[in-house]
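User: quick one - fold this with S-adenosylmethionine bound?
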Amino acid sequence: MEKGTAETQLKETESVTRQYAVRPVHSKGQGLVAMSKIRKGTRILAEAPILKVPRHASDLQAVSSIIVKQLRTLSRDQQTAFFELHNAHGKRHDPPLGIMKTNVPPLGSDSYEGGLFLTASRINHSCRNNAQNTWNEKIGCITIHAVKDIEEGQEVPITYLGQAAPYAERQRSLRNKFFFDCKCELCSLPQVKREESDGRQQMIQDIDESIGSSAFGGGIEIGLKSVRVLLELLDQEGITDTSIPRAYYDAFQIAIAHGDKARAKVFAERAYAARVIAEGDDSPETTKLKRLVKRPTEHLSIALAPLLPQQPGKMARALISGCGCKASHHRSAIPTKRQRQKMQDGLDTRTAKSLRF
Ligand SMILES: C[S@@+](CC[C@H](N)C(=O)[O-])C[C@H]1O[C@@H](n2cnc3c(N)ncnc32)[C@H](O)[C@@H]1O
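Assistant: Sure. Structure tokens for the protein plus S-adenosylmethionine:
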């Protein structure tokens, strides 16, 4: 290797100043790799989309035309970089459409638009991700934040999935939606370890889905206990992404809906702090949480306080005693997670459910 040439010197300077580089990663094609230690909470990347497409259009011909039209407006370098991106769709579509379908995340969880990012497109998936992707509407960029300390040379993956799930379910989703067999650290565990993890992943999923009914139907202590169990399981599974601020936000809603302003404030503070780590202090979600820290009673759920039971119901007692079944009594009581989210003051606690369009 010719040490000292301008090109090598440039590469060496880059590796000192940049936190990451796009490099080949074992059995996953290219990926983002840390070039120095990256501390938890660091913004690794903020990138604007070079192309935008409608997400739910059924007329693929029309979508292709939109892509081709926008491609013509890009520089030659950008066009070259675009055509070098991974295409998981083979010959099913024309290359521009296949590349877009492989690489375009939605611009916000409920957005009708997706965007293409030249660097963020190189970020692989891991079911034990150490980074979080977020569409930050305020700055018009996708941001990638370290949600764990990342060592030099480690890969920087995000999750393409919306929630925890056992191995088989994760593999199925990734194959159906993204056309690959996941080779991440969690999916590569020996069977015994994987089965232990599966038990926890299933419990996380169950609590996440039933937390609305347990929280609102069963009284504040039951609700907060289910959040505590959820946080312990997330910790055991090494999940440190936006699942954490979401859990604290659940706790906040439970507390405020039961009129407990003091604890609501504490949970709002924790949700805020955890969201700053995953998204930075300039994201719209973080800004909304900051407001709630100052004025917790601005949340609409405060209106529920007089309507909620003070004693645990049957479903809640089952949760406390850990009946562990999947029967409807865990799911059917008053507001479900979805219903609660509709009741919210527009606070979107989730990032994009599914990364690609
Ligand atoms: C958006 S691209 C990510 C960057 C891509 N590796 C590249 O070389 O450009 C998604 C593709 O990366 C690969 N990939 C991502 N995460 C993976 C994983 N956990 N296991 C195996 N392949 C993965 C799959 O081929 C997938 O279709």
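One thing worth noting: DSSP finds twelve helices and seven strands in the chain.
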